[in-house]
Specification:
The chain is an all-beta fold. The chain has strands spanning about 10-15, 15-20, 25-35, 40, 45-55, 55-60, 65-70, 75, 80-85, 90-95. The protein is globular. The two termini are about 20 Å apart.
């Protein structure tokens, strides 16, 4: 069983990194985002659930803007465009279904 300290970080964007574990049906990631970092508008075939552990993250999900704070959970449907900006340093868990093959180590 891996420990978070043993999982290699994947740089997703400037100031945003994740550490991912893959099961047969889903991918779970421990994600850290530095204050002021931005995740550009994108979409993917994976359904995504974001669980906020620390910080404040503003997300644009389709036509809706949501402000995620500690304890909040957000579902992002498959293929819906979304982006984010961190108003504080953030720690969150992202869960994807199906597996994010693009997040596996080569």
């Amino acid at each position: 069983m891996p420990h978070i300290n043993t999982i290699k970080k994947k740089l997703l964007s400037q100031g945003i990194s994740g550490q991912y574990v893959h099961g047969q049906q889903l991918t779970t990631g421990w994600v850290t985002i530095e204050k002021g970092s931005k995740l550009q508008l994108h979409h993917h075939p994976h359904e995504q659930i974001t669980i906020m552990l620390e910080g404040q993250l503003e997300m644009q999900i389709g036509d809706e803007t949501v402000l995620l704070e500690k304890g909040m959970i957000q579902v992002i449907p498959s293929m819906v465009p979304h982006s984010a900006v961190a108003h504080e340093d953030c720690i969150l868990i992202d869960v994807f279904n199906p597996v994010r093959e693009d997040y596996r180590e080569a």
